[in-house]
Amino acid sequence: MAALAAAMLIAGAACSSAGVDDSESAIDDVSDEVDDVSDDVDEAAEDIDEAGGDLADVLADNGMESLASIVEEIDVTELVGTENFTFFAPSDEAFQSLDAGDLADLLADPTELDDVLRRHIVADTVDAAALSDMSSVETEGATTLDVTVEGDTVMVGDATVTRADIEVDNGVVHVVDRIFVDA
User: Fold this and answer.
1) Based on the number of CB atoms within 10 Å of its own CB, is 175 exposed (0-12), middle (13-18) or buried (19 or more)?
2) Are strands 121-122 and 85-90 parallel, antiparallel or unpaired?
3) What separation, in Å, do the N-terminal and C-terminal C-alpha atoms of the chain show?
4) Each residue's pLDDT tens digit, 102-122
5) N or C: which end of the chain has fewer CB within 10 A?
């Protein structure tokens, strides 16, 4: 009988120990789930932060290094005069299509550079859907650019929009394949 009682105590202790181990395992599982949810929330917050951002950073992140380096040196919102804007951002290929001397002259003349940049800025946020419904846009450089749509191709002035609706702080960027030097 003593042996039976001892066996029952040992079995009970084992069950009790297994119960504690199971509880600890369940707590660890819940803790892991909480960590996973926390990681998902952190990733979502980062995605939101990346959806809009500093114009120069967004341009660089989207392969427009030439324009990003120019924009780093100026405050585009000062060129606009309002907080919200649309920027028709020339691609790197657009900059490469300029004569090297013309590009050097443009970069050496801050007033002319500001004027050229103003020709690429609209003082309102105009996404691709709204742009497609417009016949023209008025830029901050006092230039009116015709908007034409043929199938999936949207033209602004003589430039083709090659990528649209890149969100930045206070606005949107549409990549174009030309620079509006003499618009």
Assistant:
1) buried
2) antiparallel
3) 104
4) 888 888 998 899 999 999 999
5) N
